[in-house]
Amino acid sequence: MYLTRFRVNTARPGARRLLSSPQSLHAAVMASFPGLLPTTSTGGAEGPRVLWRLDHNARAEVFLYVVSPGRPDLTHLVEQAGWPAAALDPDTPGWQSRPYTPFLDRLAAGDVWEFRLTANPVHQIRRKDGEPTKRTAHLTPVHQQGWLLDPKRQERAGFRILEKPQDQRLLPGGTTHHNHPHHGDRYQLTVRDERALSFAKSREERSQAHRVKFVMVTFDGRLEVTDPDALRRTLTQGLGKAKAYGCGLMTLAPVPTPPAPGE
């Protein structure tokens, strides 16, 4: 497995076209694997697959992250949406790609990590008796956090989101005005950057009925590893729906060391 980072040159028209279309960006990511034919499966229920995510850290600082079974070649992305002149130096081809398996192999139960996840929090609803259920997006931060905090989802994914110490909580738990459970700010978890996307799957299909519509949000937080094998599966197969459109990729980072007294 490989973890790859590519900085997008947001000043270029090609970058703006890719950033505005998850369908186009997905196609560009998949074109990064010379040995992957259009008819090749990119991962079944258990196998590794290609996952990608955009991190919008600032207006001119956008990174594309890719987790993949093979090492990608992003030359075409550099030409469309990177810095081709800077990439002429063989030491800086325009992206960084690192073996991911050694890191995955070191994961152990009890490890604590900071994480980032862009996901598509959804649930099934039935508006009338007798109607089939319909997949619907969670639209409020409380419900979006509730989706990730679901105990069964965390258990299957191999982690537990950590709680804040009592003296650091600012909002009490309770219920919403609809009497739904509200966890206050009990957990070390934030949700941000909600984006409602709507786009055509192809140039030929422009009717509303054939448009892809979904909501994605980005979670930042801190977790404890409870099941290393399950977490490895989460990190390489993704979490939730809409994986082809930039959702599902979770990455981990070391927890910052607190400054020593007097520093």
TrEMBL record:
<protein>
    <submittedName>
        <fullName>Type I-E CRISPR-associated protein Cas6/Cse3/CasE</fullName>
    </submittedName>
</protein>
<dbReference type="Pfam" id="PF08798">
    <property type="entry name" value="CRISPR_assoc"/>
</dbReference>
<feature type="signal peptide">
    <location>
        <begin position="1"/>
        <end position="27"/>
    </location>
</feature>
<dbReference type="InterPro" id="IPR010179">
    <property type="entry name" value="CRISPR-assoc_prot_Cse3"/>
</dbReference>
<keyword id="KW-0732">Signal</keyword>
